[in-house]
C-alpha cells in the first residue's frame, strides 16, 4: 500500500509541474521555487509548536489549493504557480516520508516517525 500511495503523490507532483508548463512558465522557474516552502522549517528555531504550525501551513495541500484557486479566480498566473509549487512540494515531501508535523517535534509526522517504518508496513 505504501508504494501505491507514493505513486499517487508522484502523480500530484507531475501534475503540478505539468500545469506550470501548460501555463507557460519555464521549467527552471518551478525548480527554482520548489524548495522555498522548506524555509518554513526556520519556525523550529522558535520551538516545536511554532515550528510545526509554520511547517504545516506551507506543507498542507489545502494551502496550495487555496492559493492556486485564488490565482485562478483572480486571473493571476503567478499566484496560481505559487499554489502549484506548494502542492508539488507537499507531494514530494510525502514521497520521502515527511508528513505534516505533530507539535511534539519535527520527526513526529502523520506518516509516522521519520526514518522509522510503520508497524505492519508491507510496502
Structural commentary:
- It contains five helices and two strands, in the order H-H-H-H-H-E-E.
- With 123 residues, it is mainly alpha-helical.
- Strand 1 and strand 2 form a beta hairpin.
- Helix 1 packs antiparallel against helix 5 and helix 4 packs antiparallel against helix 5.
- It starts with a helix and ends in a 10-residue tail after the last strand.
Q: How many angstroms separate the termini?
A: 6 Å
Shape assignment: globular
Biggest β-sheet description: 2 strands, antiparallel
Tally of strands: 2
Strand arrangement within the widest β-sheet reads 1-2
Contiguous low-pLDDT stretches (5 residues minimum) are none
Order of helices and strands: HHHHHEE
Strand content: under 5%
Rg, nearest Å: 15 Å
Tell me the number of helical segments per DSSP (H or I, 4 or more residues long). 5
**Which percent range fits the helix content?**
55-70%
| Derived structural class | mainly alpha
Fold blueprint:
Elements lengths: L1 H21 L4 H8 L13 H12 L1 H13 L3 H19 L12 E2 L2 E2 L10
Antiparallel strand pairs: 1-2
Helix pairs in contact: 1-5, 4-5
Write out key terms for the chains shown.
123 residues, mainly alpha, two-stranded antiparallel ribbon, 59% helix
Amino acid at each position: 500500500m505504501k508504494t501505491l500511495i507514493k505513486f499517487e503523490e508522484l502523480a500530484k507532483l507531475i501534475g503540478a509541474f505539468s500545469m506550470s508548463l501548460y501555463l507557460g512558465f519555464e521549467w527552471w522557474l518551478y525548480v527554482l521555487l520548489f524548495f522555498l516552502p522548506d524555509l518554513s522549517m526556520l519556525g523550529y528555531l522558535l520551538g516545536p509548536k511554532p515550528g510545526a504550525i509554520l511547517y504545516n501551513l506551507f506543507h498542507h495541500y489545502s494551502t496550495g489549493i487555496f492559493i492556486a484557486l485564488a490565482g485562478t479566480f483572480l486571473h493571476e498566473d503567478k499566484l496560481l504557480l505559487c499554489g502549484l509549487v506548494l502542492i508539488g512540494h507537499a507531494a514530494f515531501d510525502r514521497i520521502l516520508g515527511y508528513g505534516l508535523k505533530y507539535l511534539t517535534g519535527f520527526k513526529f509526522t502523520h506518516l509516522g516517525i521519520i526514518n522509522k517504518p510503520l508497524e505492519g508496513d508491507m510496502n
